[in-house]
Amino acid sequence: MKRVLILPFLNIPSGHQQVADSLISHLEITGEQFLCKKVDIFSYSYGFIEKYVTNLYLKWIRHLPKTYSYLYRRMVIETLSEDKEKFFYENFFFRQMLKILREFSPDFILCTHALPSRLLNRLKRDAGLKIPVFNIYTDFFIHNGWGFSHIDGHFVASGRMKNILLSKGIDPGKIFITGIPIHPLFRKKPLVAEPPRRKPSILISGGSMGSGNMEGIIRLLANQKNSPFHFYVLCGKNQGLFRKLSKLKSDHISPLPYISSRKVMDLIYNQADLIITKPGGVTISECLKKRLPIMIYDKLPGQEEINYEELRLMNLAMEMGKWGKASDLLEQMSDFFSSPSKLSSYLSSVYQYEKMLDSESPTEIIIRGFL
Predict the structure, then answer these.
(1) Residue 2 and residue 107: Cα distance in Å, rounded?
(2) Mean pLDDT across 163-169
(3) Which residues are CB-contacts of 200 (< 8 A; sequence separation ≥ 6)?
(4) Residues with Cβ < 8 Å from 52, sequence gap 6 or more?
């Protein structure tokens, strides 16, 4: 039985955690015998302090988004070098990483966050660590906080990401364009006959945390009578938002609580004609798999801002324009549904993106080529 260590970071339901869970599911369906252990090195190292850091992080991006965005770009996009610099907090986790390795003795390691990758890259470079380590990138870009030089495999979301790694001297045989891993239960949207006189169904999502300026949009739409669309609002773990929307008893707005079942979420995607969302890596990847048109209404600072820049270059998402009034929102949605060329252009971009991707998942490639 192969022992697999999977390393996200922090215990919030972020893309790092979702991708880690998806990788475990992919390993479980291979028919091979794997013992998977998912470890957040922060919780492992410092216990309850992780909750305080998580709350501080969430408050920071909510109340001081510009400062977070500035520091994020300065720290990991513009300045940090693998060889010459390191994050000041790396030393807080270095010994803990050694402890995790001794305790679990993995046969290989999957990193879905930059910090564990960087620590393990140092161990492979400076201490001769022989365990295979793989980077599973959870965004549509690569920043300098990851470890690169001694990592055994890199699984990226686009050709642009591959080119960045090539520019860093990474062996092209170690780079695979697989897309961001999503749960294997998500399949391409089936082709079904269009129901007669059906209102278009639009999903509104703030990710698993129900964040972003969802309430601003919904407040405008709630007062709109005779809406030409039906809106399904994915409230995530934002229970306050779910309760507010449930009390409205609106004919055209249906709130949905946090959905843990991938089967149920897959069915919801199948019923949707458009999603209004933030550019989180996992949500976007699920929508691309379902070939569901994507409209971006808000971006959290840092990662999501850069994700959107990359998605726009590939023509894989549309940005919602100004929406100070309900009529502004409805006009943009109506314009999309009345313009077959826009849907055709989007689907063409998705097909081009799909052609870029490797036919195998990261776990299949690792099992075939590295084990």
Answers:
(1) 6
(2) 95
(3) 228, 229, 230, 273, 274, 333, 337
(4) none
Neighbours of 354 (CB within 10 A): 13
- Rounded Cα gap, residues 159 and 354, in angstroms: 11
- CATH 3.40.50.2000 location in the chain: 2-181, 201-355
- pLDDT category at 208 given cuts 50, 70, 90 is low
Measured between alpha carbons, how far is 155 from 27 in angstroms, rounded to an integer? Answer: 15
Side-chain-side CA neighbours of residue 162 (13 Å): 16
* 218 band by pLDDT with thresholds 50, 70 and 90: confident
Residue at token pair 């991006």? 61
What pTM value is reported for the model? 0.90
Residue 261 has pLDDT above 70, yes or no: yes
Domain 2-181: give its CATH superfamily. Glycogen Phosphorylase B; (3.40.50.2000)
Q: Could you tell me the end-to-end alpha-carbon distance of the chain, in angstroms, rounded to an integer? A: 12
Query: What proportions of the chain, in percent to the nearest 5, are helix, strand and coil?
Result: 50, 15, 40
Q: Token match 């897959």: residue?
A: 266
Full DSSP string of 267-313: HHHHH-SEEEE---HHHHHHHHHHT--EEE----TTHHHHHHHHHHH
- pLDDT of 6 strictly over 80: yes
117, 175 contact by CB (below 8 A): no
Angle at which helix 340-356 crosses helix 326-337, to 10 degrees, equals 70
The secondary structure element, H or E, covering residue 62 is helix 49-63
Please state, in angstroms and rounded to a whole number, the distance separating the CA atoms of residues 201 and 361: 31
Fold of 201-355: Rossmann fold (3.40.50)
Mean pLDDT of 129-137: 97
